[in-house]
Amino acid sequence: MLTENKPSPRTGRAATSRSQATRPAGTRFKTPAASGPARHAAKTSAGTRGHHIPHGVHGHVQPVCTRRSAQPARRSHVPVIAAIICAVAVLVFFIIVALPAITGLFTSVSADQAVEAGVEVEVNIPQGATGDQIASILSENNIIPDPQDYYAEVKAQNADMSLKPGDYRFTTLQDPADVVAQLVAGPNVQGVTLTIAEGLTVKQTAKRVEDVYGISADDFMAQAKASNYAADYDFLADVADDSLEGFLYPKTYSFAGTPTADDIIRAMLDQYQVEVDSLDFDGARATIKSRYGVELSDYDLLIMASVIEREALTEDQRYNVSSTFYNRLEAGMPLQSDATMMYVTGGAVTSEDLKRESPYNTYLNQGLPPTPICSPSLASINAALAPADTDYLYFFITTDDEYFSETYDQHLAAIEENR
């Protein structure tokens, strides 16, 4: 039986908004959707990241027997000093100007010799990719020998706003003018599309990939390890359990021919990077710490977004669900979201499941689960970064109604009203 704790009220908030520490944040029931049966299964409760040497005059003593009585004339040091200065200047010029140019010339020649021209290369330009990101993709695949040539062509063709995402087939060391022209014309490779819905887990994504491309789900899961990609994607540096959970961005992808599991995973990670590059994670962490006294990492924010994804049904609900969870963290209350246990069960959660020891059981454990529980949408990530400012501690969501409450009594009344 759940017991009741009385957390201290937050400054400037109603005293009644910090009660029932172990009571669930809310309850919601969802109907099955395309994101998998686990997402909208019936829920019992929810809510549930530096010596001076003196100058002297040296006298000369003339020997008694000498044929030359005249003292040799003192030589001037000015020509010597001038010669030294000139030599230093020449050396500096060589180091600063000539040497880098010569080195660059040989480096360029060596680099060009190392890449065979005319080799076909297929690349994917992610949706929303910036000019720098596109230039990086083209350069890394040796399609353009110098990114500066790409930038010059984009400017010459006034193509900044006309570059299209998708799958392309280019050749190594291709004429930059032709590359930009093709990017403006659009993808020149048509392939089978793969749609990854919001809220899918890595396991569910693997099954979808198997259905579309025939790649074994087990092979996909074996490849989908953070350690396989951390060297190329900085945002994977602090993930838990070597997991890519949360990072396989939900979107429709198109690949030419039959891609490998690695091709698909890299396309998804590229898309995640493109989507979150414009988000202010630093600002969000500062705001959340100031408002709730909670310190989170970028990874923690992604975890929160994944829980929000599995709890909310509409855009507005995401921000209120986010606020509810942050309020509970501030009050020292467990999240009590059965969506986190659904990640373990893969389906509906029973009262007995909520008693099971698991790091994903947010009824028995304080704070966030160890990893994301799905791949959240950009909307849910935004909600995790900018929660609504409320005093909610509970919510009850159905396919038709939503109830957000500050007290447990209000929460119970909402449940009773919906029976």
Task: Write up what this structure looks like.
By secondary structure, the protein is mainly alpha-helical. It has three domains: 15-47 and 280-417, no CATH class; 120-185, Endolytic murein transglycosylase (Dna Ligase, domain 1, 2-Layer Sandwich), CATH 3.30.1490.480; 192-276, Dna Ligase, domain 1 (2-Layer Sandwich). It contains 13 helices and seven strands. The strands form three sheets. The chain has a three-stranded mixed β-sheet, sandwiched between helices. The longest helix is centred in the N-terminal third of the chain and has 37 residues, at 78-114. It is globular and about 90 Å long. 35% of the residues are buried.
Please describe the structure with a list of short key phrases separated by commas or semicolons.
mainly alpha; 41% helix; globular; 419 residues; Dna Ligase, domain 1; disordered N terminus; two-stranded antiparallel sheet; 3 domains
